Amino acid sequence: MVCEEIIRTYTLEELRVATRDFRVPIGVGATSYVYLAELGDGRLGAVKRVVAERGGSKKVFLDEVSVLLRISHPNLAGLMGFCMEKGEQLLLLEYVPNKTLFDRLHTYQGQSQGVLPWRSRLSIAADIARALDYLHTAADPPVIHRDVKSSNILLVDDAHAKLADFGLCKLGHDGDAARTPTVIKGSLGYVDAAYLSTGCVSRKSDVYSFGVLLLELVTGLKAMQVGENRCIIMKIVTINTGSDVLPEWTAESRQSEDPEVLMVMVDPRLGGNVDVEQLRVVVDVANSALLDNCEARPDMSQILGRILGCMEVVGQAELPV
């Protein structure tokens, strides 16, 4: 599917002017820096500047442009234009104002805005499930994102989100991807063991990463635990002390059917303001997404259905009689 927005090429001078010579940084990627752009028509944009010093390459840049030209969805950060001039590799992307989910959950500035409510966390999970379901089933060919994580989720507001950063994406059906080992890409804590051991990536690799993201939303903890976070989680979750990875740290607790045990996992900043039945569903979805056998993991369409289903049931229960 080709984006209906007009995507154009920009000159280097146009983007230098728009970014005031790359003066206002708003983000850092694995191979890039991101700058605020003020366009002549009053719109804002985000210029992603891929740099060789961070491992950026012309091939990766062109691959990302190729993916972005094929996709369009309300829960994906869209492409507005690009530039390849004088050695620069620049993407002009849709500007999403409220930073990332990682910032909101894990930084002092994000936490100073108040606790991210449980309903908002469910809504964000649903938006990212919609985005991945689109990439996996509606995009032609299907797109495997390969880097689903909280720092690649841009917040429109506290309840609406867009998936961003398509630099590691892989095009193709599971059958093709599963037979062809690739250089392992992704972020520690979000990558499943099957992919790490074989290098064979599939849509179920994204499903695993989404399962980690669900645990992050439930617990309020990072996918990789170090330092002071280790002390926090040791107090609230039964853990495997030999691992720094959130799925293993929470493994025993999230397998429990006891609601009290599940509630112990929940981000203490929520003060218990969580619907227990919704929590059961979210933890169950995370458990299925994190299965070692990737073939046994659900599709994103199934996951989206379960998340929306639990949201609707509670919403109906709250309606006045």
From TrEMBL:
Quote the InterPro entries the UniProt record gives: Kinase-like_dom_sf, PERK1-13-like, Prot_kinase_dom, Ser/Thr_kinase_AS
Give the membrane topology, semicolon-separated if more than one: Single-pass membrane protein
This protein's record includes keyword Transferase: yes
**Main location, first listed in the record:** membrane
Alphabetical UniProt keywords: ATP-binding, Cell membrane, Kinase, Membrane, Nucleotide-binding, Serine/threonine-protein kinase, Transferase, Transmembrane, Transmembrane helix
Q: Kindly list the places in or outside the cell where this protein is found, as annotated in its UniProt entry.
A: Cell membrane
EC numbers for this chain: 2.7.11.1
Q: Which Pfam families match?
A: Pkinase
**GO cellular component annotations, sorted alphabetically?**
plasma membrane
In the UniProt record, does the keyword Protease occur? no
Alphabetical list of PANTHER family matching this protein: PROLINE-RICH RECEPTOR-LIKE PROTEIN KINASE PERK4, PROTEIN KINASE DOMAIN-CONTAINING PROTEIN
What's this protein's name? non-specific serine/threonine protein kinase
Q: Which organism's genome codes for this protein?
A: Thlaspi arvense
